[in-house]
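Colleagues,

For the teaching module next term, I've prepared a clean inverse folding example: a structure given as tokens, and then the sequence designed for it. I'd like students to try predicting residues themselves before seeing the answer, so please don't circulate the second half yet.
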């Protein structure tokens, strides 16, 4: 009874040893069939950059749908599709006859209003009437001046004659009577007395010379002065009356004046509007650029909508920009003008990335259609307004290209990488060589063929490299995570702490097969 049980135990032991031996040998030879690729990185100085990327399309920095601002019939088109023009260049014209007629009419109405105001300001008198009044007034002023001069002369003559009269002596004639008879002495005395009394009066001879006597001229002078004063008074009255008459005729009615001034203002505005309408029959280039769409033709009637920004300039995503770029040539505008030598990209960045983007940051633009072509750029505008599509929030940022090659075309698909953070002359390592757990970062430092774990302090984490602040020096070599290639073709990563050398131990403790099979 014991022997069968012993055989069973021995058989089970042999089977167990065989199984263990099989797996042990398989493990050993499996390790032997595995090759380990060890990658190292050297600490060096360089520039660590952190970028944010988005996609978009190339578009002109400035493009505009150019249209006539006034309605009319096209009489000439002076440019062709693809032609380069300069600011102010004549592009097309409308028939100006209607606008010119309207302007001529408005100018005539303005002239009439100005004449009415001038007439109102002169009291309603026409220019000939004003001239006649002025002539009469001038004549009256001359008459008054002449009368005053004559009176002044007469007064001077009077003064002269009065002075001469005061210095002229009076002449007396004495008569000697014959002796009287004795008997008649009383009578003769009486008569004599009478005769004597009569001889005291100036003689007739004296009276005959009064005309040359200054004293006699005084009375004549006074009479002349009275006449001259009357003439002066009459002349002054005539002058006063003429002034009153002119003042009455030239009365300005304030209401009429206001009405005529209003009419002038209205007529002047009409002239200004018609001048602008006439000027708008000429379509000129608002800026220097290239005609990228031309829809207007001679003979067609335009409604006059005015120029506006082209849709392609407001594209905010790759799809929107693509559709707008394709529709630029089919725009209903008379023509579309763009600055093809000044290109940009408007790209929508996710909200988490958009907060990092600022005006002035550098960018790199890669084009899908042009392999190995990267164009530098700069962020020139950030849109504060969000775009929400399917609950995804993005913000449009504009990147202006710097000296793009001629092969870069409007509408091309691109990827933009904006540098949002950068540190130059920094100690750096590939980010894949650093193991970070929480706030602790370590590397596997290789020194003289031996590896040790080293704690480090990191700074800016870039797209592919990380800034080293402390713990390593330039020239230090660290081991990157290894990739193990098995005989079956599978690969496994072992992490930063790679094993160096051949076999690193088998499936048994002690690094091999301890003991035999016996």
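(Answer key — instructors only)
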């Amino acid at each position: 009874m014991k022997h069968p049980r012993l055989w069973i135990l021995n058989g089970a032991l042999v089977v167990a040893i065989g199984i263990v031996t099989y797996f042990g040998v398989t493990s050993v030879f499996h390790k032997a069939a595995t090759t380990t690729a060890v990658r190292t990185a050297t600490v060096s100085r360089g520039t660590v950059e952190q970028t944010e990327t988005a996609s978009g399309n190339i578009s002109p920095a400035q493009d505009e749908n150019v249209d006539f601002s006034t309605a009319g019939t096209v009489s000439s088109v002076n440019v062709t599709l693809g032609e380069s023009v300069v600011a102010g260049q004549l592009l097309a014209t409308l028939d100006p006859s209607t606008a010119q007629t309207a302007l001529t009419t408005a100018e005539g109405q303005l002239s009439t209003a100005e004449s009415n105001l001038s007439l109102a300001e002169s009291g309603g008198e026409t220019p000939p009437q004003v001239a006649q009044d002025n002539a009469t007034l001038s004549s009256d002023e001359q008459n008054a001046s002449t009368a005053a001069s004559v009176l002044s002369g007469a007064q001077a003559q009077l003064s002269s004659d009065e002075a001469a009269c005061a210095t002229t002596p009076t002449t007396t004639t004495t008569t000697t009577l014959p002796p009287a008879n004795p008997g008649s002495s009383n009578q003769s005395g009486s008569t004599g007395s009478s005769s004597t009394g009569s001889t005291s009066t100036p003689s007739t001879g004296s009276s005959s010379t009064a005309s040359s006597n200054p004293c006699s001229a005084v009375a004549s002078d006074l009479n002349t002065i009275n006449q001259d004063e009357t003439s002066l008074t009459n002349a002054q009255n005539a002058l006063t009356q003429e002034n009153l008459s002119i003042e009455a005729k030239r009365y300005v009615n304030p209401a009429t004046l206001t009405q005529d001034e209003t009419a002038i203002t209205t007529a002047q505005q009409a002239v200004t509007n018609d001048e602008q309408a006439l000027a708008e029959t000429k379509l000129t280039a608002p800026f220097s650029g290239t005609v990228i769409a031309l829809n207007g033709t001679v003979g067609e009637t335009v409604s006059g909508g005015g120029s506006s920004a082209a849709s392609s300039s407001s594209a905010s995503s790759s799809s929107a920009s693509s559709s707008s770029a394709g529709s630029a040539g089919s725009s209903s505008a008379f023509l579309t003008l763009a600055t093809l030598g000044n290109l940009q990209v408007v790209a929508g960045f996710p909200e988490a990335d958009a907060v990092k983007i600022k005006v002035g940051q550098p960018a790199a633009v890669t084009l899908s259609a042009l392999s190995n072509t990267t164009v530098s750029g700069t962020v020139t505008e950030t849109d504060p307004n969000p775009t929400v599509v399917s609950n995804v929030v993005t913000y449009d940022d504009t990147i202006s290209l710097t000296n793009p090659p001629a092969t870069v075309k409007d509408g091309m698909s691109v990827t933009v990488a904006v540098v949002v953070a950068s540190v130059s002359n920094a100690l750096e390592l590939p980010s894949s060589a650093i193991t970070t757990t929480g706030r602790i970062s370590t590397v596997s430092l290789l020194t003289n063929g031996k590896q040790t774990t080293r704690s480090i302090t990191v700074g800016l984490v870039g797209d592919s490299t990380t800034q080293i602040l402390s713990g390593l020096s330039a020239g230090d070599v660290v081991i990157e995570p290894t990739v193990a290639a098995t005989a079956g073709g599978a690969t496994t990563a072992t992490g930063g702490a790679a094993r160096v050398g051949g076999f690193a131990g088998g499936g048994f403790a002690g690094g091999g097969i301890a003991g035999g099979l016996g």
